[in-house]
Model the fold of this input.
Amino acid sequence: MKVFDGLDALPAPFAPATVAIGTFDGVHRGHQALIATAVADARAHDRPALVFTFDRHPQELLAPDRAPAYLTTPAQRNRLIAELGADALVVAAFDRALSQMSPEAFVRDILKRRLGADSIVVGDNFYFGRERAGSAAYLREKADEFGFALHALEPVLVGGQPASSTRVREAIRAGDLAEAETVLGHSYLLAGTIVKGQQLGRTLGYPTANLALTVNQVVPPDGVWAVVATLQDARNVNGACSLGERPTIEGAGRSLETFLFDFAEDLYGQEMELRFVQFLRPEAKFDSLDALVVQMARDVELARARLASR
Done:
């Protein structure tokens, strides 16, 4: 899949294409239906399947105090879209000019002139343009005038309720990773770079990989989790992860640190993804470091057992 970073990176004019439009954070089952429809339509008409999205949540510009945390990093989003068979992805900068564009200008100047849209795929609840004046209904009215076919899809139901990024965020924050992954249709993975921490775990006999998140992703509840880590070289390693404030250690601060089982390699500076498989216990403050070490041994034993039985 070819990725175009910004509208200016596109060749002009772009080949006639089928274009799926959306934010696509999470690439959940609803997003997958949009992209699959675009790919099928493109194949049927012998033209490229193009996905059009933005470099940020629109609310980061329009209402920063209400901007949601992300479900995927840009790299994760791109990878998931590529796996669905899209030929190209255009990531447009969502700036003030784009936010103030009229629906007509968006269709004429971006969808038709820049993206070559002969067919457009959106969700039936899709809105765009200044003050969200554009909609699927607007596109339906303008299809003949601008010369494109429209596919406006109804929400995809999962367990009787629409799949949505909001639903996934709520499930993750509640600690229901099984529900989140059911709606997503794939694993939920926190992604980041391994950085040096205080190295206290090493002195306690449990050296940890401290993860600095790539973007502001949604995180599950604080506590200890059984996890599977995917390393930069694609190896999967089981582990136990502590997420939170580390209350036993005065002034330690918040961290996301994982003890990888039977693993002793130097990973500093490398990328890693974490899948949270099962919640083991909430955070707790222990009377001493010795008591903490005893509990850590129990956590590791329990995590091994839970991961082995799945």
